[in-house]
Amino acid sequence: MAPFLLIRHPKRQMNSRFSLAVHVLTLLASNPEERLTSEFLARSIGTNAVVIRTMLASLRRAGLVTSKSAGGGGWRLAKSAVEITLDRVRQAAMEGETAKMHRNSPHPDCAVGRDVRNVLRNVYAQGYEAMDRELAGFSVEGMLSQVLKREKIAVPG
To answer: What pTM did the predictor assign?
Structure first.
């Protein structure tokens, strides 16, 4: 059902894809010595393995995960969880997508209509930069640590 949320509710797309990516990476960080299959990740997260594989492909392109096929295959983090910051995760999950503009064609004589989209593009760019500056202060390791504390599980190290 989750894929329909991504399609039918585009305003939730960033939140859904980003949170899915964080969940996947945090789960991989919780099992650093094991390779986890997309089927295992999907069961844990409560979604379809195809959705997970699509996300893992984006994360691999960003250099955040690696995979091995055949016997003992699966996925693991490509670098330590402390090195993977959430700004990189957002960028990988969204792969260059930005906020959408309205599709209506403004009247050519409308001064606002001629330029509002250009101004909005700058606003969006500044918003994403500000968000990424904040997200850069959080890592997958930090996410895992907070999860383990909430679950009252001893934090390794």
So the answer is: 0.81
Instruction: Look up the CATH architecture of domain 2-150.
Output: Orthogonal Bundle (1.10)
Least reliable range by pLDDT among 14-23, 27-36, 143-152: 14-23
How are the residues of the chain apportioned to helix, strand and coil, as percentages rounded to the nearest 5? Answer: 60, 5, 30
Q: What is the mean pLDDT of residues 112-129?
A: 89
Q: Which residues contact 113 (CB under 8 A, 6 or more apart)?
A: 106, 107
Exposure of 97 in the CB half-sphere (CA atoms within 13 A): 15
Q: Which residues touch 105 (CB under 8 Å, ≥6 apart)?
A: none
Domain segments of the chain as ranges: 2-150
- Across the chain, what does the average pLDDT equal? 86
